[in-house]
Design goal:
Chains: A alpha+beta (157), B alpha/beta (120), C alpha+beta (156)
Radius of gyration of chain C: 15 Å
Number of strands of chain B: 5
Largest sheet of chain B: 5 strands, parallel
Order of helices and strands of chain C: HEEEEHHEEE
Strand content of chain C: 35-45%
Oligomer: heterotrimer
Helix content of chain C: 25-40%
Order of helices and strands of chain B: EHEHEHEHEH
Structural class of chain C: alpha+beta
Strand content of chain B: 15-25%
CATH architecture of chain B: 3-Layer(aba) Sandwich
Largest interface: A-C, 40 and 41 residues
Largest sheet of chain C: 7 strands, antiparallel
CATH superfamily of chain B: Response regulator
CATH class of chain C: Alpha Beta
Number of domains of chain B: 1
Distance between the termini of chain C: 9 Å
Number of strands of chain C: 7
Amino acid sequence: MPSPVKVEHINPFLSATIETFKSMLRTQITPGKIILIKGAKLSYDISGIIGLSGGARGTVTLSFPRITALKAVSEFIGEKVVTMDDTVKDAIGELTNIVAGSAKKDLAQYKINISLPSVITGENHKVLGGKEVIPLVVPFSSPLGDFNLIVSFISET
Amino acid sequence: MKILLVDDSSTMRRIQKNTLEKIGHTDVTEAEDGVDAIKKLAAGGFELVLMDWNMPNMTGIEALKKIKADPATKDIPVIMVTSESEKTRIMEAIQSGAANYVVKPFQPETLAEKISSIKK
Amino acid sequence: MAVGIRVEHVNPFVTSTMETFAKMVGVEAKPGKLMLKKDAKLEYDISGIIGLSGNAKGMVAMSFPKHTAVAVCNKFMSADYNDLHRDILDAVGELVNIVAGYAKRDLTEFAINISLPSVIVGPNHQIIDAKDAVSFVVPFTCPLGPFHLAVSLKST
């Protein structure tokens, strides 16, 4: 049976998400209780996903309901967006890229490289991990709405 | 102040353009990679370049080196705006002639501060 | 100067998909014509996706209609599920992991490392790659049904 991601490995991603929303979206976000993805019935409308490799392997995903994504992207780019267009998809990818890139500096000992971000769209899609590790989910609440950070991470050393 | 904004993501360009506007800079030209930046700089008149690092065709660091090697453009200050936060990367940029460095995520105030420190 | 991404950089992923299916699923997977992803409007039920980094960055995705995923993974695991059971989802992640790990050996010029796989489930989801990458899609057919391999790459 795979074991869950270690909490100490999720903290840099949690802090990076808070910091990115604070500085680039001017939004205070509040993390809720960390949950295991296994038992979670979580589905989303848009997700930004990026791979981590090097001295550790993992993935970071930011998953949003449609309304939260539209409000978050409006804050991020400084213009109101109301439809799930290419700008929203691109911005969610960038946001994920910034969070992963920013978390990297607190995980310097693993010499992590990040992949390119991909964005998943589709009403009520789910993002799950593979069989090696059980991802952890951090539910965030914010004035823009709720969203989730999903992290899977395994140290190779 | 005439600014050249270089980033391969149109969304990141939009974000930075809106931020620049908020802090009073409205004369902004966009370039989508290093090659495009060099081409646009040749037109002359630019007083500042905001340069992303990871871009296709020609990366930001390659473009920075080219700008600093050309007598026509070497005096234009270049601020690197990037998610590359490692010290060695920052050193490489400064040694290649970058005037300053902004790591993503950044606050509009940080960008404003770094720009005004260059104006002095 | 960065190395350009060319069609031949996708070939190792095509070959490793064929080998993985031949050796581990026990069926022949035939690649169709390679397309640029932007020309293809693709929607899926289940995708395994894995990140690549090193001297090139990117993503590899294997995307399946539900019936293909169930049939392929049942054969892969010698199981007999008739829906998207959790084990089927894990197997999709494992397939993309094997395919990317295998392909990596033939892309030594890029010194690629792979991330952990993620599995996306949801009818008609789409995967949009980073705009600055070159994205290719290879449609495959096999006796268990059709699927797609998508590779997006950017040299760094």
